[in-house]
Amino acid sequence: MNCVEGLLAASVISIQNSCFVYPACQNCFSRLILDSRRFNCLKCGCTGEAKDAHYRYRLSLKVADTNDLFDITVFGSCLDPFFGVTAENLQRCIHNFNQLSGETNAETFTVALVQAVETCFIGRRFIFGV
Total domain count for the chain? Predict the structure, then answer.
C-alpha cells in the first residue's frame, strides 16, 4: 500500500476540493459512513460510536511538472507538519468552532481553511512519491 514506484517533482496549481479530513476506518483507512450516533465501514464492516471515529487527511491537488498536469491525492500523517496538527485535532477544531459560533453549515470556517491551504500549497514545488 505504501509502495513508491517513482518520484515526481511538481508545482501545485490548485486545490481540488475543500474537504481535507475524513472519518477513516482504523483497519482499512476507507471512508466511514457516519450518522449522529454510529459509524460503519462499508469495506471491512468495522462499526462503532460516532464519537470514537478517527480522522485522516486527504488533500487532492492538481500539480504540474515541466511537461504534464497530474491529479495527486496526498493521504495521512505526512500532512501533519503542513497543517500543524493531526487530522484528529483539526477535525476537533472545526467541530468546536461550529459549536461555539452556532454555525450550522460550517461555511465560514471552511472558506478560511481553504484560503490558508491554498496559500500554503499553491505555487510551491514538492516531490511526490507516486
Answer: 1
